[in-house]
């Protein structure tokens, strides 16, 4: 992958003559980069404790069944087994869930999805634990599963709360408006899995006070602690979560249904208990992206300007609600994309089925609708005989325009500039029709395709995401900055999941205080909460809290000097570790002024509040938004239906570049993930049973599948309400890239391509 254009663009933020080696705008490397590349980084699966027991979980082989009986006697009698727990052994609240507490720790009367936990075992050896879990005898009355979300409306209730989780009927403008040109489409988005490289793992250690400590790769430790405490029947201060060994996350990293049995077993046995999930258990347990059915009708005038958009969006939530309500709000709000649409009528539903659970995955809701509305824009361009990029340019929104929710876009929205940048970027050379260039064919060097059957296509995608939580979520984070002996320490419970928060925190303190050595303390729930690691939250709220705390320490440091020289602290500046006054009279170093001092400060950052969408889908539901344009170039073998993504050109609205190398890596990773969503990633199921829950059945893109990625433009128009003016960077290329790839395949084949991932038969062109 290449990013020469990104290097050239971002160099403006840090001129070549600038001697800075730290602070904002510099490519400071991650503190744990070396350990991870050398294989010495301690992941959660590496944890150990004296007297360790091993855990295993029994999961349902059926997607829907009534539980007649559970017999644990055989498992309890096995040598080496120390405890077996079921729903009867949950001392506190039996239900949990990230968005809504509707999911049992262990199924008691009914199992609602394949892989739902029924019992957990602790034993002195992992093989013993697995055999004991298999020895738990469960008698089922198998029921017909409801796997079609459209049937969920008429089916018998699968849950006491019913099958409908949320319905949003958005109404904006004149329902009688009609365009001169109308295009319609039906689209299906498959089930995508976060597929973390490291499967879930953790260690639970009982405490002398009757509480428990959980060592987990949690991305939202305080929420996980509160949930665990409620299920364990304990006060929150008797449950501690220590975040350890997070290998990266593109969603909620830890399945709570994995954490809770672990803690129960530790409390039951009084011994440390470790649980390391298999890849199959990981696929069965954690949440996936919502499979979605979308129906669209676009109205436009004769010039191609949008008049009205009508859509129906149906999210398959699986067995439990999780964060489906949030995903539906994003899908409905962004159903028209970054385009000016004077009249919009969108209906969205999220329903329960007996399919695997769905929840938060990067760009949830926004990704599904982006694939659909961009397909509609391609259809409209084809019907009007207009260039697809030109049609989009006639309709793009800008700052000050209004979303279909009635919310004004007050943040920078340079959508036209982004689209023009990728449109004007030079196209890659055509492949040569020679044997030595066979590797350029779709399918690789050993592919069966013929060069004469290859067609090239160019497609576009425009996408948008919201930043931070939505619909009234209380977004707040707390951070403490301490300085002693010339070393600064940041305490903040924002979890580093690969988004670069710990690096950003170091850069903030370095720039604000002029101190080279900055450490970020490990995260646990003894610290104040910082919230979940999603939607670019920690760059905004946690980075903002660190900045405020660092500025308070800066004031403490400069106040004595300012008083001594009869000036305000605003007239003093810190640059490269030196303190100078505006008139040059004062010149000293931070190290000299810090000698023997210990300074610290704690601060919070809380963005302006939002509000829930009302009964008509109206309201200021989002704090801010980010935008992206992608141009995809693909080669398609129209006889075999195989697709090779040749190049992805990306232009993105980033607000401000805080770490050029880190930003480029995040964008490239997001684009690559989007290519997987477009072409290969689909967690398949048959009547609710997950098929091939492993990394051979679930095809992730590898380095050989990754195209050349050119970051052709990064627009630095600062969002004035965001700390540093920066925007979330990694979700929006994931949202936009699948739509661009599908658009390019449509251009190459002339086929509609209305399903993701793109199946080979959708790209085959038969002779007329």
| Oligomeric composition of the shown chains | single chain
Uncertain segments are 1-20
* Beta-strand content bin: 25-35%
Structural class: alpha+beta
Rough outline? globular
What is the number of E strands? 31
End-to-end Cα distance, whole Å, is 39 Å
Largest sheet: 7 strands, mixed
**Helical segment tally?**
16
Average residue-wise pLDDT: 90
With strands numbered from the N-terminus, the spatial order across the biggest sheet is 3-7-1-14-11-12-13
Rg calculated over all Cα atoms: 27 Å
Structure description:
The structure is a single chain. The protein starts with a helix and ends in a 12-residue tail after the last strand. By secondary structure, the protein is α+β, with helices and mostly antiparallel strands. The chain is globular and about 80 Å long. Helices cover 25% and strands 26% of the residues. Helix 12 runs parallel beside helix 13 (537-564).
């Amino acid at each position: 992958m290449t990013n020469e254009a990104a290097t050239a663009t971002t160099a403006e933020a840090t001129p070549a003559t600038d001697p800075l080696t730290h602070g904002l705008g510099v490519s400071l490397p991650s503190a744990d980069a070396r350990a991870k590349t050398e294989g010495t980084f301690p992941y959660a699966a590496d944890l150990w404790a004296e007297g360790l027991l091993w855990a295993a979980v029994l999961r349902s082989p059926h997607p829907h069944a009534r539980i007649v009986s559970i017999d644990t006697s055989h498992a309890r009698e096995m040598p080496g087994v120390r405890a077996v727990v079921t729903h009867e052994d949950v001392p506190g609240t039996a239900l949990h869930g990230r968005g809504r507490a509707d999911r049992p720790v262990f199924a008691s009367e009914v199992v609602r999805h394949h892989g739902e936990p029924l019992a957990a075992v602790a034993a002195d050896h992992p093989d013993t634990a697995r055999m004991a879990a298999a020895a738990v005898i469960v008698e089922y009355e198998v029921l017909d599963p409801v796997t079609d979300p459209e049937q969920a409306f008429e089916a018998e209730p699968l849950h006491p709360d019913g099958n409908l989780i949320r319905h949003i009927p958005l109404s904006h403008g004149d329902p009688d408006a009609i365009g001169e040109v109308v295009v319609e489409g039906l689209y299906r988005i498959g089930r995508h899995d976060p597929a973390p490289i490291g499967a879930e793992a953790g260690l639970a250690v009982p405490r002398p006070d009757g509480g428990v400590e959980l060592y987990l790769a949690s991305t939202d430790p305080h929420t996980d602690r509160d949930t665990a405490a409620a299920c364990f029947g304990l006060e929150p201060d008797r449950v501690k979560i220590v975040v350890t060994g997070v290998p990266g996350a593109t969603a909620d990293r830890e399945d709570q249904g994995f954490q809770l049995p672990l803690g129960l077993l530790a409390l039951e046995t009084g011994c440390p208990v470790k649980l390391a999930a298999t890849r199959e258990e990981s696929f069965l347990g954690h949440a996936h992206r919502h499979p979605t059915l979308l129906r669209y009708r676009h109205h436009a005038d004769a010039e191609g300007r949008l008049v009205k958009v009508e859509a129906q969006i149906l999210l398959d939530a699986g067995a439990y609600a999780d964060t489906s309500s949030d995903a539906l709000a994003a899908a409905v709000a962004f159903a028209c994309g970054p385009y000016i649409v004077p009249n919009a009528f969108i209906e969205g539903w999220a329903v329960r089925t007996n399919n695997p659970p769905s929840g938060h995955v990067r760009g949830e809701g926004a990704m599904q609708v982006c694939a659909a509305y961009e397909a509609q824009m391609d259809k409209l361009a084809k019907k009007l005989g207009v260039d697809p990029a030109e049609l989009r340019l006639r309709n793009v929104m800008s700052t000050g325009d209004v979303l279909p929710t009635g919310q004004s876009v007050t943040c920078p929205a340079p959508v036209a500039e982004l689209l023009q940048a990728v449109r004007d970027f030079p196209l890659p050379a055509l492949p040569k029709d020679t044997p030595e260039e066979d590797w350029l064919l779709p399918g690789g060097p050993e592919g069966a395709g013929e060069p004469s059957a290859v067609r090239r296509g160019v497609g576009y995608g425009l996408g948008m995401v919201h930043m931070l939580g939505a619909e009234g979520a209380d977004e707040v984070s707390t951070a403490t900055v301490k300085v002693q002996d010339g070393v600064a320490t940041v305490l903040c419970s924002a979890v580093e999941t690969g988004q670069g928060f710990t690096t950003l925190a170091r850069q903030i303190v370095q720039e604000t205080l002029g101190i080279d050595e900055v450490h970020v303390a490990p995260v646990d729930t003894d610290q104040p909460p910082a919230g979940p690691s999603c939607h670019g939250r920690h760059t905004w709220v946690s980075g903002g809290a660190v900045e405020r705390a660092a500025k308070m320490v800066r004031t403490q440091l400069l106040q004595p000097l300012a008083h001594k020289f009869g000036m305000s602290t605003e007239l003093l500046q810190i640059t490269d570790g030196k303190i100078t006054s505006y008139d040059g009279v004062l010149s000293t170093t931070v190290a000299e002024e810090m000698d023997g001092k210990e300074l610290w400060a704690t601060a919070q950052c809380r963005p302006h509040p939002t509000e829930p969408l009302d009964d008509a889908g109206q309201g200021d539901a989002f704090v801010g938004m980010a935008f992206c344009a992608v141009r995809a170039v693909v080669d398609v073998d129209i006889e075999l239906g195989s697709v090779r993504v040749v190049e992805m050109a990306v232009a993105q609205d980033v607000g401000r570049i805080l770490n050029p190398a880190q930003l480029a890596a995040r964008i490239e990773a997001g684009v690559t993930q989007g290519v997987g969503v477009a072409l290969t990633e689909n967690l398949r199921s048959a009547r609710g049973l997950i098929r091939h829950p492993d990394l051979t059945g679930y095809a992730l893109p590898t380095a050989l599948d990754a195209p050349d990625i050119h970051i052709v433009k990064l627009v630095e128009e600062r969002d004035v309400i965001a700390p540093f003016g920066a925007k979330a960077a990694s979700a929006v290329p994931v949202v936009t890239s699948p739509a661009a790839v599908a658009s390019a395949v449509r251009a190459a084949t002339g086929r509609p391509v209305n399903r993701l991932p793109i199946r080979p038969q959708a790209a085959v062109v038969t002779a007329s």
